[in-house]
Design brief:
heterodimer; A: about 250 residues; mainly alpha; 8 helices; B: about 220 residues; 9 helices; globular
């Protein structure tokens, strides 16, 4: 079984796999988006306090979740690159970073759009908002380092160290910021307790989260394909691919 | 030569190197003073407001001045090639880079702490707060040198590295800033400050155990 997995650590095989998976991931994600948007925006009842404006939760919560998930994916790939020298780790870390940064920005923007009618302000210095903002800065630091180092591999290796340092620091930053100030409503979805949300509102949220998740994987795979072709641009298999009329 | 004497050699060499560039060591101090003096110009001459902002201003100014000095940890060693010798040496690299962090703390940050305590007169900060500022700076600033060395190693030899270094490091310094400034603010209100000091000590110990390994990995990634 492990020899089988090892095969996909090779950039060429991963490229083939990613190419095959991407349309499926985008397809299923698109279907889930349609289902989630219809059930979330039309079928779910309005909130008894927040009225219709709570519906932004269907974009806000999945983006916030993915902003953290993406950092963990990036740091995991970076750790694989540092520990086992897996080239695929470099590729995936570099491919994930801009996607994660975009979801972080999306979570911040939708959060502030939601905050204006509910809290009466675009921004409060609340713990979870602030740690999300700091997460965005961590992503931007990684991206700045990537663009500053010209050699792609050297950039990926330096970025791997930064991503691992960042992932160690994220809980520290999160809890110190929480200690500093908190006002945000408690987490709506937790693993260990019954969610504090009505089922009719929860189901669209879960569908949207799945749609976002698949969209994230598909987008990372597309970016990873570009990275792989650029990493391996001097190899024979990429030349063959191009002369065969790729894409 | 044992690892211990190698570490001592690196430390002594750092003192020699930095002692020859005293002018460069003074620059962060001047920068700190200027930043601290800028705030009253921006907020006005209201004495109570200046007094209330004082500890926060001192902490932020220390943070900025430190960030400015981080670039020097590895830069000149990179320029003259001795950094490669350090990485190639048989002695444990984390130990050697920990010595670089120690030298940075002693030559760049310790004078900054003394200057910060002197500038408390500008903000009319009282004795309890001053003692708390000293304690929290002593406990918190080792994090700046140790974690800063990781950033310095990652950006060494890059164009415009000082700005990039600040972008990378400042988010990582925020926990220290939160607890450090909170300790001094609490002292001003007559509240206990043990919790903040414990947190700062914990952060410093954690950076001491982990950061040298990250710095070593960063140097290998940049030079290897």
């Amino acid at each position: 079984m492990f020899t089988h997995w090892h095969k996909y650590a090779s950039l060429m095989h991963f490229h083939t796999l990613a190419r095959r998976l991407t349309p499926w991931l985008y397809g299923v994600s698109g279907v889930l988006f349609i289902a989630g948007l219809i059930s979330g925006l039309v079928l779910a009842p309005p909130d008894y306090q927040q009225g219709e404006s709570f519906r932004i939760i269907y974009v806000h919560v999945p983006s916030a979740w993915l902003s953290m998930f993406a950092y963990v994916v990036m740091a995991g790939a970076a750790a694989a690159s540092l520990i086992w020298r897996v080239k695929l780790g470099d590729v995936l870390a570099r491919a994930t970073a801009p996607v994660g940064a975009s979801f972080t920005a999306l979570a911040l923007i939708t959060g502030s759009l939601w905050g204006k009618p509910m809290w009466g302000t675009w921004w409060v210095w609340d713990a979870r908002l602030t740690s999300e903002l700091l997460l965005l800065f961590l992503y931007l630091g990684y991206l700045a380092l990537q663009s500053a180092i010209e050699d792609r591999r050297a950039a990926a290796r330096a970025g791997a160290v930064l991503a691992v340092v960042g992932v160690v620091n994220i809980p520290i930053i999160h809890y110190s910021v929480e200690w500093w100030s908190t006002l945000h409503q408690g987490a709506t979805l937790t693993k260990f307790a019954a969610p504090s949300i009505a089922t009719s509102m929860l189901i669209p949220l879960l569908i949207m989260t799945a749609a976002f998740q698949l969209f994230f994987f598909a987008t990372v795979l597309v970016r990873a394909r570009c990275e792989i072709l650029e990493f391996d641009r001097h190899t024979q298999w990429v030349r063959n691919l191009v002369s065969a009329g790729y894409p | 030569m044992s690892a211990f004497s190698a570490a001592r050699a690196v430390l002594l060499r750092e003192f020699l190197r930095l002692g020859r560039k005293r002018g460069q060591l003074v620059q962060p101090l001047l920068f700190f003073l200027l930043v601290a003096v800028l705030f009253p110009f921006a907020v006005g001459t209201d004495a109570t407001l200046i007094n209330r902002l004082g500890p926060a201003v001192v902490w932020v100014a220390v943070l900025l001045a430190t960030t400015l000095s981080l670039d020097e940890i590895f830069r000149s060693d990179f320029d003259d090639g001795s950094l490669e010798q350090l990485v190639l040496s048989v002695y444990p690299l984390p130990l050697l880079v920990a010595m670089k962090s120690l030298a940075h703390w002693l030559t760049s940050i310790a004078p900054l702490i003394l200057l910060a305590l002197a500038t408390t007169w500008l903000f009319d900060i009282d004795q309890t707060q001053r003692e708390n500022l000293a304690a929290s700076l002593l406990l918190g600033t080792p994090v700046f040198s140790l974690v800063g060395a990781v950033g310095s190693a990652l950006t060494v030899g890059l164009r415009g590295s000082a700005m990039l270094l600040a972008l990378i490091m400042l988010p990582l310094y925020i926990p220290v800033l939160i607890f450090g400034a909170a300790a001094v603010a609490n002292a001003g209100l007559g509240l206990p400050t043990n919790a903040e000091h414990y947190f700062l000590a914990g952060l410093a110990l954690m950076s001491l155990t982990l950061a040298p390994f990250a710095t070593a990995a960063a140097l290998r990634a940049r030079l290897g």
